[in-house]
Amino acid sequence: MKILLIDNNDSFTYNLLHLIKSVCNNNDSVEVCSSDRITKKTLADYTRIIISPGPGTPAEAKKFHKIIRGYEQQTPILGICLGHQIIAESYGAVTYNLTRPAHGIQSKISITDHTNIFRGMQSHIMAGRYHSWCVSSENLPDCLKITAVDSIGNIMAISHCEYNIFGVQFHPESFMTGYGKTIMSNFLNINQQ
Fold it and tell me: Which of 72, 81, 89, 131 is catalytic?
């Protein structure tokens, strides 16, 4: 398996890389590439794409919309935090600024779909959050499904209804997140389940 981790200039990228490598097989390769160097052609050889967290907003990353849509049928994609928001917006969802940012907090997350990346997990997990933006559930496109929420109903995870495209608002690589390895392992093994 050839895995690409797209780095959105975030301090968590190398924690995420460590998590990915901890669940990979010895013959898997993981490469990190800065988001400003990514083109549609760059992605052609990868079997998994992970879009990292990062500063800024998904509106500043519109170039990813065509890239995600261009690879949706052939390559499983996982977006984390900003990456999750980028995926949502690429399918027409809207993001909004939270009244109270969720920076460095641990929250109880309710999983509403136990397939795919949440396979084999409990209905409630604790997760580390570091974000001030969230995907809106109002007018969520029909092609996206909410797969996890926080205690007040904010979207914490989505999946595409047809393709292996997933997003999590929380950070699976955080020490505050239970089941981070399970989530990553489930994603990397998505076609083999």
Answer: 81
